[in-house]
Fold this protein.
Amino acid sequence: MKTILNIIWLVLSGFWLFLGYMVAGLILCITIIGIPFGIAAFRIGVYALWPFGYTTVERHDAGAPSCIGNVLWLILAGWWLTLAHIVTGIAQCITIIGIPLGIANFKLIPVSLMPLGREIVKTDQRFGAR
């Protein structure tokens, strides 16, 4: 089922969100200071391309630099990527078939707001030993 949802997602919104994250990552990688943010954008972009079957978990070893980095991310790129997820999620929830896709968009909002200190894992590995 998740393969079918991922294909529908890719056609309707996943590719465009992926492109948004890739553009944000390229822009952020222009400077040396922005490279960690660019890498985070690339990581989330791949997650936005195939969201079904994956989830995010908090990394407990992330400290104060992740917090400061998340504030900078929010100012630089997070707010407009989050806005894209909100608009796309509302548009997809209009139809009954699009509700799972809209929920997936809303699932991506926390990681698009604050990506540092989070890790993307498969849903069956969520509680496994890491």
